[in-house]
Write a structure and sequence with these properties.
The chain has two domains: 5-106, Rna Polymerase Sigma Factor, Chain: A, CATH 1.10.1740; 119-187, Arc Repressor Mutant, subunit A. Helix 9 (150-157) crosses helix 10. The chain is 79% helix and 0% strand. The protein is elongated. The chain is an all-alpha fold.
């Protein structure tokens, strides 16, 4: 599975104690961890401690050289913090009925599997788009990514009207769909 290039850069920065990378990881993830702790019998100091422990765990994993991120960095950090906080609550015997059910209400393992499958699907879609060819790739990108109207697409691609452009878009989608599913079958 591919990890986002930005996240790889952040992890490489963390491994060499790059201040900017560490601050970015902190800014992107601390509020999520604070919310988790505050909503489950903790306070701001607990949240800081848990986040700091998670950063140490992440740092040690990245420094080991064999660490491979198989989900979004945010999901990984959340998972670490959640486990650390549940462990801390168990040690302090401050479990409340809501926190005891936290395992059930926040299924991180399922989220990791979902993220992993989504990333595989994105890879398959990327390969299918590469195999699609022109003008279909450009037409679909214009419609779905650039949010252009069918009238604009008809003008840009030389179709006589928006209906013809719409028909071509449909044909391109069907071709892309076939390529996507063929790609998915090959990796199963």
């Amino acid at each position: 599975m591919r990890t986002d290039t930005h996240e790889k850069t952040l992890l490489q920065g963390l491994a060499v104690n790059d201040r900017q990378a560490i601050e970015t990881i902190y800014k992107n993830n601390y509020n999520m961890v604070q919310s988790l702790v505050l909503h489950n019998n903790g306070d701001a100091d607990d949240a800081r401690d848990i986040f700091q422990e998670a950063m140490i765990v992440l740092y040690e994993k990245v420094r080991s050289g064999s660490f491979e991120l198989n989900c979004q960095l945010k999901t990984y950090i959340y998972s670490i913090c959640r486990r650390l906080w549940l462990k801390r609550l168990g040690q302090l015997q401050r479990f409340s009925p809501e926190v005891e059910k936290l395992e059930e209400t926040i299924p991180v393992e399922e989220q990791l599997e979902i993220h992993a499958q989504q990333n595989v699907d994105f890879q398959h879609m990327d390969e299918a788009m590469k195999g699609l060819g022109e003008p279909c790739r450009s037409l679909l990108e214009a419609y779905y990514l650039q949010k252009k109207s069918m009238v604009e697409i008809a003008d840009n691609f030389g179709y006589t009207n928006a209906d013809n452009a719409k028909n071509q878009k449909y044909k391109c989608l069907m071709r892309l769909r076939k390529l996507f599913f063929d790609q998915s079958k090959r990796t199963v």
